[in-house]
Amino acid sequence: MITIDVRLPLEHFDLAVAAELRGRAVGLLGPSGSGKTSLLEAIAGLRRGVTGRIVREGEVLLDSAKGVRLPPERRRVGYVPQESLLFPHLSVEENVRYAMRGGSEEVFRDAVEILEIVPLLPRAPATLSGGERQRVALARAIASRPRLLLLDEPLAGVDVALRGRIVPYLLRIRDELAIPFLYVTHNTGEAALLLEEGLWLERGRLRATGPIGRVLEESARVGGDSGAVIENLFAGTLEELARDGVRGFRVGDARLFVPDPGHTGRGVYAVAPSDVLLAAAALPAVSARNVLEGMVSSARDAGGLRLVSVEASGLAWTVSLTAAAAAELGLEPGRRVWLAVKAAAFRPLS
Amino acid sequence: MSADLSIVLLTLRVALAATLVVLPVGVLAAWWLARWRGPGRSLVETMLALPLVLPPTAVGLLLLELLRPAGAIGRLLSGLNLEVLFTWKAAAIASAVMAFPLMVRPVRTAFEEADPRLTSLARSLGDGPIRAFRRIALPLAWRGILAGTVLAFARAVGEFGATILIAGSIPGRTQTLALAIFHRTQIGQDAEALRLVAITVAIAFVALWSTELLRTRRSRRLRGEP
Fold first, then answer.
1. What integer best gives the mean pLDDT of chain A?
2. Non-local CB neighbours of B88 within 8 Å, separated by 6+ positions
3. Per-residue pLDDT at A150 exceeds 80
4. Interface residue B24 vs chain A (CB under 8 A)
5. Is A176 exposed, middle or buried (0-12, 13-18, 19+ CB in 10 A)?
6. pLDDT tens-digit profile of B105-137?
7. Which residues of A331-350 are buried (b: 16+ CB within 10 A; e: fewer)?
């Protein structure tokens, strides 16, 4: 558990955040310029003028009232900034090994294998693509054996295909290495997929906190993040069952059908909110391979469209449709609906 | 000819000593100037730049005041039984003081150009402030440090005005290339003076050229080229 109660004067407002984080994967959400990066830097100890308390698993990182202020090098925090900030004068391998004074070879192997950067090791950072740079930055942070990872939009500025390639690595960091992380993102799909808990920050203040689903809904209700990217992301297991270019894909209790990638095992897929159809009655016969029964949990307007959140088969979906269509179907919270998605609408991300 | 050689060796010794003194002090001063945002910065900056614009003889006279046996530093030196004035050490001190601003400027620019967040990141990866400086800030500023070092060395080789005031122009003891050239023209040995000029040009050329070679090779490595 991490207890945060910090204050930090910023240029246009004061950052004042008090929260208890229990989840292993916590999202830091909110519009641009709401103080998310400043909060990460305050936790990492890279900002002057931070007051308050930060306690991680009983270890006090900051207690300004008692004059405790651990320097950044003693906080055991792995920080991955938005621009990855690799050391340009060192090779990829030297970057990853940077924090490994006396660290075991095993930690290094794990880091470079999980992020699949072994072939990149001898190269100079200047020769890497955006996605490669982010993977190296993640490996460098992991190899420092942090007790907490701070990830500042690690997927921003990375194009869709590369972003999809990194998401599975983040899942492995969360599930296999079990390093808790704080994750800044503007992508609701990413948030729903990767995170357990969320903090919604606006002008330096906490507006919502709790389980990620509730925070996303709450944030949508208060106007949301105009820069947010909304999509449905699902991580699950590809099954043996495959026919006619379509393969079974198990996510929790739900079985979906997705384009066959030609293998089984782990998979991550994205569906655009506009690619999901909603029906107010059971669909007797429909060509779409995925038909799920569910219930509307919330609905809101966004840029002339109506965004409807639906719980179906234990999964949270966001569906966009015109306001007129939404009104016609009576899509208000509590309404029973059926949703239909063509297998081809699932974009593989891994 | 052997007189020429001893002049060259003395000049190199003076210039190298001056450069070695100026290098660490200049790098630290440059770092401070690049990072300090509090009060007093512009004042210190101006004071550090003064030797650049003052007549070298004025600087020399000030140094003489400080170093003479009754002067502030001279007393300390005689307490340590160190004789400095009118020795090669005085020539090195004069050169170091005159070279100092030339060292600081490019190094400071280099520190300012490097992203300060890289050093912060090194801190969060477990480096203390000194270690992060040595592993990140210093190597990233190598271009400026190299430029500053060469400039300081070249300036030290050519130092004249301040040197003649505190070291004199004693053949075989403090007469460096610059002083010897002047001395020879004064006594009508123009051909001999020109020979020294040729040597000076050669030293400056080698210093600048080898720097350039080193610079391009390292830049290529940074870009990931062989």
1. 87
2. B10, B13, B14, B17, B167, B173, B174
3. yes
4. no
5. exposed
6. 999 999 999 999 999 999 999 999 999 999 999
7. beeebebbbbbbbebbbbbb
Shortest Cα distance, chain B CAs vs residue A171, angstroms: 22
Residue B169 has which token pair?
């122009």
The predicted structure's pLDDT at residue B124: 93
A88 touches chain B (CB under 8 A): yes
| ipTM of this complex | 0.83
pTM equals 0.79
Rounded-to-integer distance, Cα A209 and Cα A200, Å: 6
Give CA A179 to chain center in angstroms: 14
Q: What is the DSSP string of A18-51?
A: EEEE-SSEEEEE-STTSSHHHHHHHHHT--TT-E
- Going from the C-alpha of A225 to that of each of A17, A201, A221, B175, the distances in angstroms are 19, 10, 10, 74
A108 touches chain B (CB under 8 A): no
Report which DSSP code applies to A11. S
Give the span between the Cα atoms of B98 and B41, in whole angstroms.
Answer: 21
With a cut of 80, say whether residue B211 has pLDDT above it: yes
CB contact under 8 A, A75 and B118: no
Say if residues B65 and B58 touch (Cβ distance below 8 Å).
no
CB contact under 8 A, B124 and A45: yes
Between CA B220 and CA A298 the distance in angstroms is 57
Q: Are strands A246-251 and A254-259 parallel, antiparallel or unpaired?
A: antiparallel
Is there a contact between B123 and A78 if contact means CB atoms under 8 Å apart? Answer: no
Identify which of A221, A155, A210, A164 has the alpha carbon closest to the alpha carbon of residue A186: A155
Q: How far is CA B113 from CA A82, A101, A222, B34, B141, in A?
A: 19, 28, 41, 9, 8
CB B87 within 8 A of CB B174: yes
Q: Which of A141, A115, A129, A123 is nearest to B121 (CA)?
A: A141
- Residues with Cβ within 8 Å of A291's Cβ and at least 6 positions away in sequence, in order, are A283, A338, A339, A340
Q: What is the mean pLDDT of residues A6-28?
A: 93
Q: Give the separation between CA A270 and CA A184, rounded to whole angstroms.
A: 19
Contact A73 B127 (CB under 8 A): yes
Task: Check residue A187 and report its DSSP letter.
Answer: B
pLDDT confidence band for B225 (50 / 70 / 90): low
